[in-house]
């Protein structure tokens, strides 16, 4: 038996970070949105009685260093499924190490696919709990759409959906380690990290004001863009190409622009590619699509 899924990337429309707690974890307040830049995940049963993972055309690890592999193992353990014989193939389209949650969305899709493949042995809540233990972005990637994410990213509150928007995404230059980005925040701000917890209450009660350019924010831009010339240049290009808003996603270095029409977004992607970026045209969308 075989099942497939489109696993969408995410962008952050708002991202603020609080000081680290005693365990070293930072609280966040973020508005996340899934977009139609997909990895395609295929899961099927076989006679090998173990987990095999393939990522053709990618140099990603295909063992337990891969988050999707660990998600499969965690699912089998939780479901008490022995000697399953599972083959997982990931067709990567989402650029890695970019702030777009490519690894998290793959892992979330694997959890959903395996649950469907084995006739739903786990509840949706159980799947989300497995996901949250593997990675803070995984629960959101499993549900998708538009949501307020708090805690360490694992607490989700659905928000009114955005109006459908064309999105241009650009990626180029050096990778950015999430751990290194957080370390840069700590170095810049220390204990004075400008947490804005009131935003959580505001977004919960009022929703995110998508039509206002004043609400969009990503604290990581303050430490990444001054040193990542490609990300800074692509953000400027998106603005000049007519983006209603242009900003970095997550800890970067991918940047995105929201456009009011497809043709302007398509023209921006052309300009980005001409400047040397890996550029993608997509739309805001819902969560994982199984087929």
Q: What's the layout of helices and strands?
A:
Blueprint: E1 2-20, E2 26-45, E3 51-54, H1 67-79, E4 86-91, H2 102-117, H3 124-134, H4 138-143, E5 146-150, E6 155-158, E7 166-171, H5 178-189, H6 198-206, E8 217-218, H7 221-224, H8 229-240, E9 245-248, E10 255-259, H9 262-274, E11 278-283, E12 289-290
Parallel strand pairs: 1-8, 3-4
Antiparallel strand pairs: 1-2, 1-12, 2-4, 2-5, 5-6, 7-10, 7-11, 9-10
Summary?
This protein is an alpha+beta fold and 291 residues long. The protein is 33% helix and 29% strand.
Kindly provide the name of the CATH class of the largest domain: Alpha Beta
Taken in chain order, the helices and strands follow as EEEHEHHHEEEHHEHHEEHEE
Number of domains: 2
The largest pleated sheet is described as: 8 strands, mixed
Tell me the Rg in angstroms. Answer: 19 Å
What gross morphology would you assign?
A: globular
Query: At CATH's second level, what is the architecture of the largest domain?
Result: 2-Layer Sandwich
Helix content: 25-40%
Total strand segments: 12
CATH topology term of the largest domain: Ribosomal Protein S5, domain 2
**Percent of residues in β-strands:** 25-35%
Give unreliable regions as ranges.
Answer: none
Report the average pLDDT across residues. 91
For the record, give the distance between the C-alpha atoms at the N and C termini, rounded to a whole number: 12 Å
Number of distinct helices: 9
Find the structural class using helix and strand composition.
alpha+beta
